[in-house]
Amino acid sequence: MKKILVTRNLLEENEKRILQLFDANLNKEDKLYSPEEVIALSENCDGILSFTTSVLNRETINKLSDSVKIIANYAVGFGNIDIASAKKRGIVVTNTPEVLTDSTADISILLLLGASRRAYEGRKAAELQNWVWSSNLLLGKQMSNQKLGILGMGRIGRAVAQRARGFGMKIHYHNRSKLTSDLEHGAIYHPDIKSLFRQSEFLSINCPATPDTINLLNEETIKYLPDGAVVANAARGDVIDDNAMIKAMKSGKIFALGLDVYNGEPKINEEYLKLNNLFLLPHLGSATKVTRIGMGDRAIDNLQDFFLNKRPKDQVN
Ligand code: GLV
Questions:
Q1: pLDDT tens digit sequence for 150-188
Q2: N or C: which end of the chain has fewer CB within 10 A?
Q3: C-alpha angle with apex 286: 38 to 37, nearest 5 degrees?
Q4: pLDDT classification of 73: cutoffs 50, 70, 90
Q5: Catalytically annotated residue among 155, 236, 292, 298
Q6: CA nearest ligand 1 atom 1, residue
Q7: Atom 3, ligand 1: which residue's CA is nearest?
Q8: Preceding amide of 266 cis, omega within 30
Q9: Residue 265 among the catalytic residues
Q10: 46 CA distance to ligand 1 middle (Å)
Q11: pLDDT at 265
């Protein structure tokens, strides 16, 4: 049986399956292993099942034992792994696309609604029980019939578009390449950020974190958005320059922001916490039982294929 280091706790259903197929070194206590611990614990392993919290940068990858041939990441994003260094060492890296599309798109919509309808202030007022209904109590922005800009029109971006159409929103998007019309469903393509942002009364960030997308929302680009825009980020914290965003939220340029992901999470720029026009979640994009089981299954499928000498379906390097 091939030996696999599992760097975080898996749901019971996935645990059962991995134990049938592999000699799995589980992390039942769900400890956050340091890179040194990952290196030591994978010493005699054939593969690693890693999670978004496991940072496998160049230095760590270079110190992994020669026995490690595959890293199956339990996430669609793989910014936690230096895939080029892995490739250089002949280590295959896989991710878990598709299975988390719906749950993550749901969270994008939740962020847009939570931010635009002032859910944070609403919750606080309801808890304090000192509010009085009035015609102007916590007035928000309505999504119906507004323009939604989607930054990153991959599977998740397209699932956000599908949901937003239910609100009567008109979809605009920017992506590395224009989609075919059967995938666009009438969405309007913008070849550059400036032109997308100019239309984005609401903006949903659904692109991966890459060197090209780091700080894509910055002092200059935020200015392109219409005054009073609502922004939601369910992708990666790196896409937003937090200082520029905080400034724009204070000035009213940005009406409200919804965040599920953070630069250096679980840390958050302290200045955000002074703002009321912010709706926050702790990286819950894929956090439903059915999705998490799907992600575990997909990672295990990738390990299984690899050790059967087949190219894993989700190989990314
Ligand atoms: C979650 O953030 C993922 O990339 O799957």
A1: 999 999 999 999 999 999 999 999 999 999 999 999 999
A2: N
A3: 5
A4: very high
A5: 236
A6: 75
A7: 75
A8: yes
A9: yes
A10: 24
A11: 95
The active-site residue, picked from 265, 270, 271, 292, is 265
pLDDT of residue 164: 98
Which domains are seen in the chain, by residue range? 3-99+289-307 (3.40.50.720), 101-280 (3.40.50.720)
pLDDT in tens, 94-136: 999 999 999 999 999 999 999 999 999 999 999 999 999 999 9
Sign, Cα dihedral of 79, 81, 86, 91: negative
Distance CA 249, CA 216 (A): 16
**SS3 assignment for 127-196:** HHCCCCCCCCCCCCCCCCCCEEEEECCCHHHHHHHHHHHCCCCEEEEECCCCCCHHHHCCCEECCCHHHH
| Tokens read off for 36 | 């040194």
Average pLDDT of span 84-102: 98
Residues near 286 by Cβ (< 8 Å), separated by ≥ 6?
Answer: 75, 76, 100, 103, 104, 292, 295
CB-defined site of ligand 1, < 6 Å: 52, 75-77, 100, 285-286
> Separation of 8 CA from ligand 1 center, angstroms?
14
Reported as a single tens digit per residue, the pLDDT across 36-54 is: 999 999 999 999 999 999 9
- Edge-first strand order for the sheet with 47-51 is 23-25, 3-6, 47-51, 70-74, 92-94
Determine how many CB atoms are found less than 10 A away from the CB of residue 273. 9
Catalytic residue among 155, 158, 283, 298: 283
Q: pLDDT for 199-252, tens place per residue?
A: 999 999 999 999 999 999 999 999 999 999 999 999 999 999 999 999 999 999
Distances (CA, A) of 1 to 38, 46, 68, 252, 308: 20, 10, 14, 59, 12
